Amino acid sequence: MKITFFTHNTFLLKINNKYLLIDPFFSGNPFFEKKDYIKYINNIKKLDYILITHAHYDHVCDVEFFAKKFHNVLVISNYEIANYFERKGIKTYGINYGSFIFFPFGKLKYVWAAHSSVFSDGTYGGNPGGFLLHTNEGNLYISGDTSLMYEMKIIPNFGPLNISILPIGGRYTMDIEEAIIASNFLKCKKILGVHYNTFQEIQINKNEAKKSFYKKGKELILLELGEFIYI
Question: Whose C-alpha in 2, 85, 146, 218 is 20 to 30 A from the C-alpha of 51?
Answer without folding.
Answer: 218
